[in-house]
Write a structure and sequence with these properties.
Oligomer: single chain
Strand order of the largest sheet: 1-7-6-4-5
CATH topology of the largest domain: Peroxisomal Thiolase, Chain A, domain 1
Distance between the termini: 21 Å
Helix content: 25-40%
CATH superfamily of the largest domain: Thiolase/Chalcone synthase
CATH class of the largest domain: Alpha Beta
Protein backbone atom coordinates (compact mmCIF):
# COMPACT_ATOMS: atom_id res chain seq x y z
CA UNK A 1 0.00 0.00 0.00
CA UNK A 2 1.17 3.51 -0.82
CA UNK A 3 2.18 5.69 2.11
CA UNK A 4 1.54 9.38 1.55
CA UNK A 5 1.90 12.63 3.44
CA UNK A 6 -0.99 15.05 3.09
CA UNK A 7 -2.36 18.25 4.67
CA UNK A 8 -5.12 16.96 6.93
CA UNK A 9 -6.02 20.50 7.91
CA UNK A 10 -4.93 24.09 7.35
CA UNK A 11 -5.77 27.31 9.19
CA UNK A 12 -4.63 30.91 9.28
CA UNK A 13 -4.83 33.83 11.63
CA UNK A 14 -4.48 37.56 11.00
CA UNK A 15 -4.66 40.36 13.58
CA UNK A 16 -7.96 42.14 14.09
CA UNK A 17 -6.37 45.57 13.63
CA UNK A 18 -7.02 46.87 10.10
CA UNK A 19 -4.64 49.56 8.85
CA UNK A 20 -5.70 51.45 5.73
CA UNK A 21 -3.50 53.38 3.33
CA UNK A 22 -4.94 56.62 4.70
CA UNK A 23 -4.10 55.51 8.26
CA UNK A 24 -0.43 55.17 7.30
CA UNK A 25 -0.39 58.41 5.33
CA UNK A 26 -1.91 60.37 8.20
CA UNK A 27 0.17 58.80 10.98
CA UNK A 28 3.46 59.47 9.20
CA UNK A 29 2.64 62.71 7.35
CA UNK A 30 3.43 61.12 4.00
CA UNK A 31 2.76 63.08 0.83
CA UNK A 32 0.93 60.30 -0.98
CA UNK A 33 -2.60 59.52 -2.08
CA UNK A 34 -4.62 56.42 -1.31
CA UNK A 35 -5.85 56.25 -4.92
CA UNK A 36 -2.28 56.19 -6.26
CA UNK A 37 -1.25 53.44 -3.83
CA UNK A 38 -4.24 51.30 -4.79
CA UNK A 39 -3.54 51.74 -8.50
CA UNK A 40 0.25 51.42 -8.35
CA UNK A 41 0.72 48.82 -5.59
CA UNK A 42 -2.71 47.17 -5.54
CA UNK A 43 -3.44 47.36 -1.81
CA UNK A 44 -5.99 49.27 0.26
CA UNK A 45 -5.51 47.77 3.74
CA UNK A 46 -3.47 45.30 5.75
CA UNK A 47 -3.40 43.78 9.26
CA UNK A 48 -0.84 44.88 11.86
CA UNK A 49 -0.40 43.51 15.36
CA UNK A 50 -0.64 45.49 18.57
CA UNK A 51 2.61 46.31 20.33
CA UNK A 52 2.60 43.37 22.76
CA UNK A 53 1.88 40.64 20.19
CA UNK A 54 4.79 38.53 18.93
CA UNK A 55 5.21 36.13 16.01
CA UNK A 56 4.75 33.17 18.34
CA UNK A 57 1.36 34.49 19.43
CA UNK A 58 0.04 34.58 15.86
CA UNK A 59 1.39 31.08 15.26
CA UNK A 60 -0.38 29.71 18.32
CA UNK A 61 -3.68 31.30 17.27
CA UNK A 62 -3.42 29.68 13.83
CA UNK A 63 -2.37 26.29 15.25
CA UNK A 64 -5.24 26.19 17.74
CA UNK A 65 -7.70 26.46 14.86
CA UNK A 66 -6.51 23.05 13.65
CA UNK A 67 -8.15 21.37 16.68
CA UNK A 68 -5.40 18.75 16.94
CA UNK A 69 -5.79 16.18 19.70
CA UNK A 70 -2.66 14.86 21.43
CA UNK A 71 -0.36 16.05 18.64
CA UNK A 72 2.86 13.98 18.51
CA UNK A 73 5.33 15.27 15.96
CA UNK A 74 7.95 17.77 14.91
CA UNK A 75 7.17 21.47 14.53
CA UNK A 76 8.68 23.41 11.64
CA UNK A 77 8.43 27.19 11.83
CA UNK A 78 9.24 29.57 9.00
CA UNK A 79 9.80 33.15 10.12
CA UNK A 80 11.98 36.18 9.55
CA UNK A 81 10.19 37.94 12.44
CA UNK A 82 11.45 35.71 15.24
CA UNK A 83 10.55 36.54 18.84
CA UNK A 84 14.24 36.54 19.78
CA UNK A 85 17.55 35.62 18.15
CA UNK A 86 17.55 32.78 20.66
CA UNK A 87 15.72 30.72 21.84
CA UNK A 88 14.02 29.61 18.67
CA UNK A 89 10.49 30.83 17.98
CA UNK A 90 9.53 27.20 17.31
CA UNK A 91 10.46 26.20 20.87
CA UNK A 92 8.43 29.12 22.24
CA UNK A 93 5.42 28.07 20.14
CA UNK A 94 5.75 24.49 21.36
CA UNK A 95 5.70 25.69 24.96
CA UNK A 96 2.69 27.97 24.37
CA UNK A 97 0.81 25.03 22.83
CA UNK A 98 1.56 23.00 25.99
CA UNK A 99 3.23 20.23 24.02
CA UNK A 100 5.40 18.19 26.39
CA UNK A 101 6.78 15.53 24.03
CA UNK A 102 10.41 15.59 22.90
CA UNK A 103 9.92 15.88 19.14
CA UNK A 104 12.02 18.72 17.70
CA UNK A 105 10.81 22.27 17.10
CA UNK A 106 12.85 23.98 14.41
CA UNK A 107 13.10 27.52 13.00
CA UNK A 108 13.73 28.01 9.30
CA UNK A 109 14.53 31.13 7.27
CA UNK A 110 13.99 31.07 3.52
CA UNK A 111 12.28 34.48 3.43
CA UNK A 112 8.96 34.50 1.56
CA UNK A 113 9.44 30.91 0.33
CA UNK A 114 9.94 29.64 3.87
CA UNK A 115 6.74 27.69 4.43
CA UNK A 116 7.29 25.60 1.31
CA UNK A 117 10.88 24.90 2.41
CA UNK A 118 9.52 23.89 5.83
CA UNK A 119 6.89 21.72 4.11
CA UNK A 120 9.58 19.88 2.15
CA UNK A 121 11.64 19.22 5.29
CA UNK A 122 8.59 18.04 7.21
CA UNK A 123 7.58 15.64 4.45
CA UNK A 124 11.13 14.26 4.21
CA UNK A 125 11.29 13.64 7.96
CA UNK A 126 7.91 11.93 8.00
CA UNK A 127 8.87 9.61 5.15
CA UNK A 128 12.20 8.63 6.76
CA UNK A 129 11.08 8.12 10.37
CA UNK A 130 8.30 6.33 12.19
CA UNK A 131 6.61 9.64 13.02
CA UNK A 132 3.01 10.01 11.85
CA UNK A 133 2.35 13.76 11.89
CA UNK A 134 4.01 17.17 11.75
CA UNK A 135 3.06 20.81 12.15
CA UNK A 136 4.28 23.32 9.55
CA UNK A 137 3.87 26.96 10.53
CA UNK A 138 4.74 30.29 8.95
CA UNK A 139 4.35 33.34 11.15
CA UNK A 140 5.35 36.95 10.57
CA UNK A 141 5.01 40.34 12.24
CA UNK A 142 6.66 42.43 9.55
CA UNK A 143 5.01 45.62 10.83
CA UNK A 144 7.55 45.66 13.66
CA UNK A 145 10.42 45.75 11.19
CA UNK A 146 9.25 48.64 9.04
CA UNK A 147 10.57 52.16 8.80
CA UNK A 148 7.18 53.86 8.72
CA UNK A 149 8.67 56.75 6.72
CA UNK A 150 9.94 54.46 3.94
CA UNK A 151 7.28 54.69 1.24
CA UNK A 152 8.78 51.75 -0.66
CA UNK A 153 8.02 49.28 2.15
CA UNK A 154 5.52 50.67 4.64
CA UNK A 155 2.47 50.00 2.46
CA UNK A 156 3.58 46.51 1.40
CA UNK A 157 4.24 44.45 4.48
CA UNK A 158 1.86 43.03 7.06
CA UNK A 159 1.32 40.40 9.76
CA UNK A 160 -0.24 36.94 9.86
CA UNK A 161 0.31 33.22 10.35
CA UNK A 162 -0.61 29.92 8.73
CA UNK A 163 -0.50 26.43 10.26
CA UNK A 164 -0.67 23.15 8.34
CA UNK A 165 -1.23 19.77 10.01
CA UNK A 166 0.53 17.06 8.01
CA UNK A 167 -0.33 13.38 8.45
CA UNK A 168 1.37 10.25 7.08
CA UNK A 169 -1.10 7.51 6.16
CA UNK A 170 -1.64 4.53 3.94
CA UNK A 171 -4.24 5.16 1.22
CA UNK A 172 -4.62 8.76 2.33
CA UNK A 173 -7.33 11.04 1.00
CA UNK A 174 -4.77 13.54 -0.28
CA UNK A 175 -1.09 13.63 -1.14
CA UNK A 176 1.84 15.99 -1.41
CA UNK A 177 3.04 14.61 -4.73
CA UNK A 178 6.32 16.52 -4.86
CA UNK A 179 8.12 19.55 -3.60
CA UNK A 180 10.94 21.47 -5.21
CA UNK A 181 13.03 24.02 -3.33
CA UNK A 182 15.89 25.95 -4.89
CA UNK A 183 18.24 28.76 -3.95
CA UNK A 184 19.67 30.92 -6.71
CA UNK A 185 22.79 32.57 -5.25
CA UNK A 186 23.24 36.28 -5.76
CA UNK A 187 25.60 38.94 -4.45
CA UNK A 188 23.00 41.60 -5.19
CA UNK A 189 20.44 41.85 -2.40
CA UNK A 190 17.42 43.83 -3.53
CA UNK A 191 15.53 42.95 -0.33
CA UNK A 192 17.47 42.93 2.93
CA UNK A 193 17.64 43.82 6.60
CA UNK A 194 21.07 45.33 7.20
CA UNK A 195 21.26 45.54 10.97
CA UNK A 196 21.45 42.97 13.74
CA UNK A 197 23.47 40.22 12.09
CA UNK A 198 27.17 39.43 12.43
CA UNK A 199 28.07 41.73 9.51
CA UNK A 200 26.46 44.77 11.11
CA UNK A 201 25.67 43.95 14.76
CA UNK A 202 23.74 46.42 16.86
CA UNK A 203 26.01 48.90 18.65
CA UNK A 204 24.71 49.95 22.06
CA UNK A 205 26.93 53.04 22.09
CA UNK A 206 26.14 54.52 18.70
CA UNK A 207 23.12 54.94 16.51
CA UNK A 208 23.80 53.19 13.25
CA UNK A 209 22.46 53.28 9.73
CA UNK A 210 22.26 49.50 10.01
CA UNK A 211 18.75 49.15 11.38
CA UNK A 212 16.42 46.12 11.76
CA UNK A 213 14.12 47.62 9.14
CA UNK A 214 13.52 45.85 5.85
CA UNK A 215 14.80 47.64 2.75
CA UNK A 216 13.91 47.23 -0.91
CA UNK A 217 16.71 48.47 -3.10
CA UNK A 218 15.23 48.10 -6.58
CA UNK A 219 11.51 47.43 -6.96
CA UNK A 220 11.59 47.13 -10.75
CA UNK A 221 14.40 44.58 -10.63
CA UNK A 222 12.57 42.57 -7.96
CA UNK A 223 9.43 42.51 -10.14
CA UNK A 224 11.30 41.42 -13.26
CA UNK A 225 13.48 38.80 -11.60
CA UNK A 226 10.62 37.31 -9.61
CA UNK A 227 8.32 36.91 -12.61
CA UNK A 228 11.05 35.52 -14.88
CA UNK A 229 12.41 33.13 -12.25
CA UNK A 230 8.99 31.79 -11.23
CA UNK A 231 7.97 31.11 -14.82
CA UNK A 232 11.29 29.35 -15.52
CA UNK A 233 11.21 27.22 -12.38
CA UNK A 234 7.54 26.30 -12.82
CA UNK A 235 8.19 25.19 -16.38
CA UNK A 236 11.27 23.19 -15.39
CA UNK A 237 9.55 21.56 -12.43
CA UNK A 238 6.53 20.46 -14.43
CA UNK A 239 8.84 18.95 -17.04
CA UNK A 240 10.86 17.16 -14.35
CA UNK A 241 7.73 15.60 -12.86
CA UNK A 242 6.04 14.84 -16.18
CA UNK A 243 3.23 17.28 -15.51
CA UNK A 244 1.65 20.16 -17.36
CA UNK A 245 -0.23 23.32 -16.40
CA UNK A 246 -3.55 21.88 -17.52
CA UNK A 247 -3.22 19.11 -14.91
CA UNK A 248 -3.87 21.65 -12.15
CA UNK A 249 -7.19 22.92 -10.88
CA UNK A 250 -5.84 25.79 -8.77
CA UNK A 251 -2.68 27.84 -8.25
CA UNK A 252 -1.59 29.53 -5.02
CA UNK A 253 1.13 32.17 -4.95
CA UNK A 254 3.11 34.08 -2.37
CA UNK A 255 1.23 37.37 -2.12
CA UNK A 256 4.18 39.69 -2.67
CA UNK A 257 2.42 41.81 -5.22
CA UNK A 258 -0.83 41.32 -7.13
CA UNK A 259 0.75 42.46 -10.39
CA UNK A 260 3.45 39.77 -10.16
CA UNK A 261 0.83 37.05 -9.73
CA UNK A 262 -1.15 38.27 -12.74
CA UNK A 263 2.03 38.48 -14.84
CA UNK A 264 3.00 34.89 -14.03
CA UNK A 265 -0.54 33.65 -14.71
CA UNK A 266 -0.48 35.44 -18.06
CA UNK A 267 2.83 33.79 -18.96
CA UNK A 268 1.37 30.38 -18.05
CA UNK A 269 -1.86 31.13 -19.94
CA UNK A 270 -3.92 30.57 -16.80
CA UNK A 271 -7.03 32.60 -15.98
CA UNK A 272 -7.24 34.58 -12.73
CA UNK A 273 -10.27 32.57 -11.59
CA UNK A 274 -7.87 29.69 -10.92
CA UNK A 275 -6.09 31.55 -8.15
CA UNK A 276 -6.80 33.70 -5.11
CA UNK A 277 -5.27 37.14 -4.64
CA UNK A 278 -5.62 38.60 -1.15
CA UNK A 279 -2.67 41.01 -1.27
CA UNK A 280 -5.12 43.90 -1.57
CA UNK A 281 -6.52 43.28 1.94
CA UNK A 282 -3.71 41.40 3.75
CA UNK A 283 -0.56 42.75 2.11
CA UNK A 284 2.73 40.86 1.96
CA UNK A 285 2.97 38.69 5.07
CA UNK A 286 6.27 37.25 3.86
CA UNK A 287 6.53 33.49 4.44
CA UNK A 288 2.98 33.31 5.80
CA UNK A 289 1.33 34.76 2.70
CA UNK A 290 1.23 31.65 0.52
CA UNK A 291 -0.27 29.62 3.34
CA UNK A 292 -2.82 32.28 4.24
CA UNK A 293 -3.94 32.39 0.59
CA UNK A 294 -4.14 28.58 0.48
CA UNK A 295 -6.15 28.50 3.71
CA UNK A 296 -8.53 31.18 2.42
CA UNK A 297 -9.02 29.32 -0.86
CA UNK A 298 -9.96 26.16 1.06
CA UNK A 299 -12.33 28.11 3.33
CA UNK A 300 -14.03 29.71 0.32
CA UNK A 301 -14.44 26.32 -1.40
CA UNK A 302 -12.24 27.39 -4.29
CA UNK A 303 -10.24 24.23 -3.54
CA UNK A 304 -12.13 20.99 -2.96
CA UNK A 305 -11.42 17.32 -2.35
CA UNK A 306 -9.52 15.77 -5.25
CA UNK A 307 -8.34 19.07 -6.71
CA UNK A 308 -4.75 19.26 -7.85
CA UNK A 309 -3.07 22.40 -6.50
CA UNK A 310 0.28 23.99 -7.33
CA UNK A 311 1.67 26.30 -4.64
CA UNK A 312 4.69 28.52 -5.16
CA UNK A 313 6.72 31.29 -3.57
CA UNK A 314 9.94 33.22 -4.10
CA UNK A 315 11.84 35.13 -1.44
CA UNK A 316 14.92 37.23 -0.74
CA UNK A 317 18.25 35.51 -1.24
CA UNK A 318 16.38 34.10 -4.19
CA UNK A 319 14.81 31.10 -2.55
CA UNK A 320 12.11 29.48 -4.67
CA UNK A 321 9.70 26.80 -3.49
CA UNK A 322 6.98 24.82 -5.25
CA UNK A 323 4.73 21.99 -4.16
CA UNK A 324 2.20 19.84 -5.97
CA UNK A 325 -0.68 18.78 -3.73
CA UNK A 326 -3.73 16.61 -4.29
CA UNK A 327 -6.20 18.13 -1.84
CA UNK A 328 -7.78 15.60 0.49
CA UNK A 329 -10.90 17.28 1.90
Amino acid sequence: MAINVWPKNIAHFVPEKIVTNNDIIAANSLKMKDSWIQKRIGIYERRWVDEKIAASDLAVMAAKKLNMNNFQGAIWVSTISQDYFTPSTASIIKNKLNLEHDYPAIDLNAACAGQIFALEMAVSRLLTTDEKEALVIATEVRSKFLNKLDRRTVFLFADGACAIHLVKEENSQGNIEWTRCQTIPSDSYEILVLGGGSVHPFDQNNESEYTPFIKMQDGDKIFQRTTESLVTVISGSLKKYNSKISDYDFFVFHQGNGAIIKKVLEAMNVSTDKTLINFDKFGNTSSASMGIALSEAVQQKKINKGDKVLVMAMGAGYHIGLASIVWGY
